[in-house]
Amino acid sequence: MKRTARPTGPAIELVGVSKRYGEVHALDGVSLTVEQGEFFGVLGPNGAGKTTLVEIVEGMRKADAGKVAVFGESPWPRNIALLRRIGVQTQASAFFTRLTAWEHLETVAALQGVDRAAARHAMDLVGLRDKERSRVDDLSGGQRQRLALATALVHEPDLIFLDEPTAALDPEARRALWSVLRDLRGEGRTIVYTTHYLDEAEALCDRVAIIAGGRVVALDSPGSLIRSMAAPARLLIPAGRITLDRARAVEGVDRVFLEGAEVVVETRHANRVLVALGEFVDMDAIQTRTATLEDAYLRLTGPGTGGVAGAGTAKAAGPDSDPDSDPDTGTATGTATTTAAVGTEHRP
Fold first, then answer.
1. Over 50: is that where the pLDDT of 332 sits?
2. pTM for this prediction
3. Residue 136 near residue 146 (C-beta atoms within 8 A)
4. Residue 104 neighbours by CB distance under 10 Å
5. Cis link prior to 77 (omega < 30° from 0)?
6. Which of 133-142, 247-256, 280-289, 321-330 has the lowest mean pLDDT?
7. Residue 347's Cα: distance from chain center in Å?
8. How far apart are CA 321 and CA 169, in angstroms?
């Protein structure tokens, strides 16, 4: 497929974007820029405004105020020229369920005006060749997630919106998909990525916007957000190896407490304290934990920050949540949704 030449300038530009639903400010003066070729994360509790933000950028919803530009053009009213440059994968992706996976993707390719080779490439990219003869309604939740991603990629878009693409994937498949996403970024694609798996955002995203209460409360690289916290390191020692009093006596220790079967030593001088503790404890028994994006996220959206933390739960580890519950309503959905961030946010 022949790629359209990319114009210069940012992929996405928002200036003072606001949206209300009755008395609720879903978005309140949001401004941000996503550069072309950037892997950009959108994070925040459920109900924070992420769905509204992404729908406005995709051209599915009109902003009440502010400027919205995608590749220099307004996405609203529906901009047909932009649609061919945008790929969207959501938790509630639509499929031709009575077709096989290959027939579905072949049909989507035809609708997008691309050939079967593009469908084959997308199928191989997400690792579904061995399931191409299976009917869509016979695929597992994780396989449907991969088919949804292939559907979004089949026409080789320049801008890709991904909503929890690794939800319902096992750890091995999840890491394999990370590799696919990094390759897409390496090709110069722009990716807007909404997730509750904060380890994933930390590993993949160039920058993240953390949204709470309809406002951007932080916008930076994951590393910069973590460093801005100046959070202490934690040294974890099996409780039987050292007493609390002995650990407190080490110079440079800020705080010591017992957590389960481990003594936790907090310090801003990890190297020095680690060497000192080595006089009492075998160094191999000490685990070091530094601050993560999860820590920054919780500090920015937690109780007392003006955010809406508590409406949803951030995920810092692998996909182990209940696949049949909706995170915004708590009701059964019967789908492979785990912690949806786009398309399921509650609005009055």
1. no
2. 0.79
3. no
4. 23
5. yes
6. 321-330
7. 21
8. 11
Strands 233-238 and 262-267: antiparallel
Cα of 240 vs its chain's centroid, Å: 39
With a cut of 50, say whether residue 300 has pLDDT above it. yes
> How far does the chain reach from its first CA to its final CA, in angstroms?
42
d(CA 113, CA 5): 18
The beta-carbon contacts of 206-209 under 8 Å, at least 24 apart in sequence, are 206/38, 206/39, 206/40, 207/38, 207/40, 207/41, 208/40, 208/41, 208/42, 208/43, 208/293, 209/32, 209/40, 209/41, 209/42, 209/43
Q: How confident is the model at residue 345 (pLDDT cuts 50, 70, 90)?
A: very low
Residues in the chain: 348
Instruction: Fill in the amino acid letter for 165.
Output: P
**Number of other CB atoms surrounding residue 80 within 10 Å:** 8
Tens-digit pLDDT profile for residues 277-293: 999 999 999 999 999 99
Residue whose tokens read 């529906």: 78
The average pLDDT across 248-270 equals: 95
CA 109 – CA 92 distance, rounded (Å): 19
Sketch out the chain's domains with CATH numbers.
Answer: 12-85+157-226 (3.40.50.300), 232-289 (3.30.70)
